[in-house]
């Protein structure tokens, strides 16, 4: 594969995503704002020098339009495969498979993990953003979906106008769990949730250490919602169905130090 092909492929992909999704600029039409969107490139070749699907140009173009990329290779050589399928350690942001057949099993290798999110392969479209402290003194912790959530983080924050304010969406068929251990020096935690989820279908649920449901979020809240819990172990589970995907959630957990 030549250098030229390498250049063409990333420019074509970045331009295609813009061309295909400018439909969203007219807010009075069916804008497909809340569907999981992807471009699938079916190809029998891949640059052996490596296509430049770099994060500052090609990934940015996809992120700007809230679109995911799937590359399905057919009978690629080992060198081509190694350049296409690089793995998590190479900061891969798109999904990619290679197949030598076109039967149902081959189709399942990309439909099941990426469209049904069945965890049979790493889904690079929905990377986890695990619980982590927001400051070095552990005075609060956070987690969110999608990983590039850009909605409100504080009660004076606002969701911006639909779609363009945040192109990122969570994935269909999400089933992700987060565990928050109450710090030893705390007797409780205040949990604040900013969320925009498909009402009645996609849920962010919180469970205490005995697995009792203590809070459940679905739909949309203009500012935020909070609750207090004394549980030593708080588990959050986010589940989504096969239909709309919205702008997701940000959770902030503030431990109350024992006085
Ligand atoms: C947006 O779409 C509506 C409905 O199809 C149409 O009437 C309107 O002219 C469009 N606006 C623009 C700026 O294209
Ligand atoms: C990414 O690709 C663009 C377009 O070719 C280029 O201008 C930019 O320098 C590249 N960035 C990196 C980090 O490779
Ligand atoms: C795959 O490519 C090899 C050559 O690299 C060729 O011999 C083989 O027939 C191809 N298989 C299919 C299914 O096209
Ligand atoms: C913050 O928490 C992490 C792990 O939860 C721990 O390793 C670290 O020592 C804590 N830092 C402080 C300042 O308590
Ligand atoms: C998608 O959701 C609908 C409505 O909840 C359900 O009837 C259908 O079985 C689901 N399809 C799949 C493939 O899960």
Automatic annotation (TrEMBL):
It comes from the Eukaryota. InterPro entries: Sperma_CUB_dom_sf. The keyword Signal applies. Keywords: Signal. Residues 1-22 form the signal peptide. This is VWFA domain-containing protein. It comes from Caenorhabditis nigoni. The gene is Cni-E02H4.4.
């Amino acid at each position: 594969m030549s250098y030229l092909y390498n250049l063409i492929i990333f420019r074509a992909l970045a331009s295609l995503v813009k061309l295909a999704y400018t439909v969203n600029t007219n807010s009075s039409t069916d804008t497909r704002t809340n569907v999981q969107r992807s471009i699938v490139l079916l190809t029998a070749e891949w640059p052996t020098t490596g296509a430049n699907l770099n994060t500052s140009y090609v990934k940015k173009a996809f992120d700007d339009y809230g679109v995911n990329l799937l590359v399905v290779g057919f009978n690629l050589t080992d060198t081509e495969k190694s350049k296409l399928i690089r793995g998590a350690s190479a900061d891969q942001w798109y999904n990619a498979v290679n197949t030598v057949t076109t039967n149902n099993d081959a189709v399942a290798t990309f439909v099941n993990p990426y469209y049904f999110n069945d965890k049979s392969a790493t889904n690079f479209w929905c990377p986890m953003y695990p619980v982590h402290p927001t400051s070095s003194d552990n005075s609060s912790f956070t987690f969110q979906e999608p990983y590039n959530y850009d909605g409100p983080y504080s009660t004076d924050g606002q969701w911006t106008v639909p779609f363009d304010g945040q192109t990122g969406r969570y994935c269909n068929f999400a089933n992700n769990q987060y565990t928050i251990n109450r710090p030893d020096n705390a007797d409780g935690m205040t949990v604040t949730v900013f969320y925009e989820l498909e009402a009645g279908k996609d849920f962010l649920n919180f469970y205490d250490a005995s697995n009792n449901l203590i809070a459940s979020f679905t739909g949309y809240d203009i500012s935020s919602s909070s609750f207090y819990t004394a549980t030593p172990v708080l588990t959050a589970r986010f589940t989504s169905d096969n239909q709309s995907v919205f702008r997701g959630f940000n959770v902030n957990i503030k431990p109350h130090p024992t006085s």
